[in-house]
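User: Some background: our group keeps a shared notebook of sequences we're curious about, and every so often someone picks one and asks for a predicted structure to add to the entry. Today it's my turn. The entry only has the sequence so far, pasted here. Could you supply the structure so I can complete it?
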Amino acid sequence: MPSFLARSRKDSSNKCHTILSLCSVLLDCVKTILFQLVCMHQDPNEVCTLHSVDVTPEPLTFFHVIYLGRRVARWEHKTRKLSKAFGSPHLACYTLGGAILLLNVLRSHCFTQAMLSQPRMQSLDNPAVYHVGLALLGVGGVFVLSSFLALGFTGTFLGDYFGILKEARVTMFPFSVLDNPMYWGSTAIYLGWAIVHASPTGLLLTALVALIYMVAIVYEEPFTAEIYQQKASQAYKRS
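Assistant: Of course. Here's the predicted structure to add to the notebook entry:
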């Protein structure tokens, strides 16, 4: 392996460990803040315990959707066993993409249930803030949908790990105005959804999700760049 790639992987690994540590700290902060909120709204005659606040499944669900999909895709890139099992890299990619979509539905459900199970924030519960939330939902939806249309199904759902590569880097909107628009569009959607529900839980979980997306970016981009560099090297040798 070239030395610059080795250094890139080491740097990415260090960044991942740092961000994962921040995620752990933020999760502790989430539980502490929610604990205080629950105690403020709980019957004085009832005992308030930290066990009454449980947001752990939600961030884990977000992490699993991102991590497991890429873990499987890397395994496929190394072994090509999914492509062999399904008889086609496209069919294998469609299957993994469908599984990720189903996990995304579960993720959104968990996010909503976590918000609804915790108190609302009065300072966010007004028409002006509500409309800001709607605007964020709209902007996030535009970024996510336009990213999908620009990349296609296989480009969105890790097709490059299956050997389904683009001829050139996508530069059309929204990639012309923002790197990783799918991730940040999704983050905007969750932030808007949290604001619409005036949910401090949603805001804190959105921050956690943004950090997890940052992990995915620093972990994913060097590997994807390596895939395309291998493609360029092979094309150069054939020429």
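Suggested note for the entry: Residues 3-41 form the longest helix (39 residues). The chain has a mean pLDDT of 77.
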